[in-house]
């Protein structure tokens, strides 16, 4: 298998050679092999992607190379890792310290937890520089500044004096990259470097990694679950599954003609923007309006000062109006902090709000929690993280029927009948009702959550990033399930997501939000195929294209979109955007903010 | 994996029996239960077990120099300064200490957990008032408070227990408050609100099970401090009135003779450690049994 591989690098001497690498993890049931017989070469200047779903062993590979496997639970069980001819397995801690950062550097998924919150950016950068003797103490600050310039951080002088919490997620990841590149390493390992970031920030960071790689000739080992990122970044791909290599190929070959079934299913499951089939005839305009929202505002107080009074408000949602018809899916899109989730919570009365909300014709203004109960039978919510939204201490069977118990809809054997019916409905076996959440996979857990939301037979479901935490293949299955339920029961969905490709598959209408306000709305095709607002265009341009032959153009700088924050002092409010009607229902904020 | 029971809710009594049978399968829990059983037995049947009159000041209980006798002979565990049989006094003392340890600590746990959960879940003004009050209680010297309270009320076992509980609930409420605050933000609690569950249902059915491990740990730790606090109170004359023995006041009465007659401090001390250990072992086992994510281990 290894012998016949075309590296595509014309026989250049590889900087990293991995042969038959195996990693074992100790579990209650004995040693479990999480990585088995992995071999690959990495040439200078090349980008190799390790792609796979959760549990495929891709992160274990990175940790093994860095000598950072969690001891004593995990250990290298066999094989070799050679860096420029030097064997790394079995190296002691002192020797490894000279390798890490200096020759092999790593950036992690979550930049906030990887940076020390109590140290300024300058001190953290200087520490790395001095630790590895890159430059003299006196020269370190100047070198740190140069590094920040290298990673294209705005106002680098000011950034040096700031602490990690003062920076945005994208800026933090830039600082992490600066730290990783401080010693000019031969290899950069990027472990899901953009998964926690918004799509526009992701595009910027990927552009940056590519530019830096060209400048420094660094070899990049990219670890990701996102085939869009793979297509965009990689020269070669290794697809992993359950710790074994499934397929290794140059990226174009893999995307053009995957040789294995698994790679094919993985690629097929990736939602591609612009390829979704037309939606079945959208709910007719005469259908009943299940949700009507007018001039919705949600503000959170920020208290401060000597007397701890409210000094400012976060205007999370500002003057949003929309409606949702029976059998229709309305998607709310936007980056983190744009207020899309807050709208969902307001509909269920989970946050205090102002304005008008009517669910199934019933106005919600001023309802107490008790008076909200009948409303909740009509509208339910499925949250983002199925692991966190299930009670770990209660069997799933109990949790699924809990809403019916709360509302006094059934008792005794009726409850268990209903639980079985709900489980079958979402494609789970009723034998599993006794089990606890930790015994299920992520996708199964989300099915349990959907079953729970369905138990009250609601008319509207708010799906808040309900598939974002799932692997792509599972994501597709859950989306199918939601679709099926909609067709059978005429459910209406308020589908909240940041993922344009997913939205394209499910939405009838789309609302794009920024800083708590709607900037563009219309039918799916109006908004996604003919975006009129600069922000919508930027969101769409940032989506990675899962096709290596059609590279995404580098993201244009966001000049026409002013940096802005939704926080205003008491008494001030953001300027309300007015929407201009372009064509049947396609409304855009003018001028662009 | 799954037993043939009603899938939605296993019957209550069956659950209790299952917990009990699982408890009996764990050697450490059985050890703890045995100690507790022996102590309860000793407390209930004290008059029948005591080899001697615990109040009798025996002339032959002291040596010629007037010093207490070491363990052995007529006095199984030695005698105290007044020539009383230590073993008999310890057995009778079990009554006081067990009642104080369980009762006072139980009240403290209920009060502390109740205040902590309420403040943590509701937040805002409720939390501000309750937690400032807790801070006040914390800042107030515990002993002084206990003396004042005990001086106001006529000393009796119940009053002593109440006084100790009033002093001891504070730490528990702090811990539970912090934990509840982070739990209340978690998604599965939000889900319950989205479903429309009432506040009591959320607190008791969904929050409490997650707080159980902290409650058990702090609750069992509290037992030894409680027993010792009772001793301090007795020493100051506001606790259990002499000559009624308790493990704590036996230690206090005799601590000055620690170098010459160490057994007078060692044996009651050992009993306090055993009591705390026993509850701790049972508590740990209970915590593991009640946590479904640990099922199948051990």
Question: How is this structure best summarized?
Answer:
The complex is a heterodimer of chains A (593) and B (298). Chain A is built from 20 helices and 23 strands.
Largest sheet of chain A: 8 strands, mixed
Give the full name of the CATH homologous superfamily of chain B: MetI-like
CATH structural class of one domain in chain A: Alpha Beta
CATH superfamily caption of one domain in chain A: P-loop containing nucleotide triphosphate hydrolases
Please give the share of residues in helix of chain B. over 70%
Subcellular location (chain A): Cell inner membrane
Pfam family, one (chain A): ABC_tran
Membrane topology (chain A): Peripheral membrane protein
Keywords (chain A): ATP-binding, Cell membrane, Membrane, Nucleotide-binding, Transport
Task: List the main descriptive attributes of the protein structure presented here.
heterodimer; A: 593 residues; alpha/beta; Rossmann fold; eight-stranded mixed sheet; six-stranded mixed sheet; 20 helices; globular; disordered N terminus; B: 298 residues; mainly alpha; MetI-like fold; 0% strand
Helix/strand layout:
The complex is a heterodimer of chains A (593) and B (298).
Chain A: E1 16-27, E2 30-42, E3 47-51, H1 58-66, E4 74-83, E5 86-87, H2 93-99, E6 104-107, H3 111-114, H4 121-131, H5 140-150, H6 156-160, H7 169-181, E7 187-191, H8 199-216, E8 219-224, H9 227-233, E9 236-241, E10 244-250, H10 251-256, H11 261-269, E11 289-304, E12 309-325, E13 329-333, H12 340-347, E14 354-359, E15 362-363, H13 369-376, E16 379-382, H14 396-406, H15 412-425, H16 442-454, E17 460-464, H17 472-489, E18 492-497, H18 500-506, E19 509-514, E20 517-523, H19 524-529, H20 534-542, E21 567-569, E22 579-583, E23 586-589
Helix pairs in contact in A: 4-5, 5-7, 7-8, 8-20, 11-17, 14-15, 14-16, 15-16, 16-17
Chain B: H1 12-24, H2 27-44, H3 46-49, H4 86-122, H5 124-139, H6 142-152, H7 157-185, H8 187-195, H9 199-235, H10 247-254, H11 263-290
Helix pairs in contact in B: 2-4, 2-11, 4-5, 4-7, 4-9, 5-7, 6-7, 7-9, 9-10, 9-11, 10-11
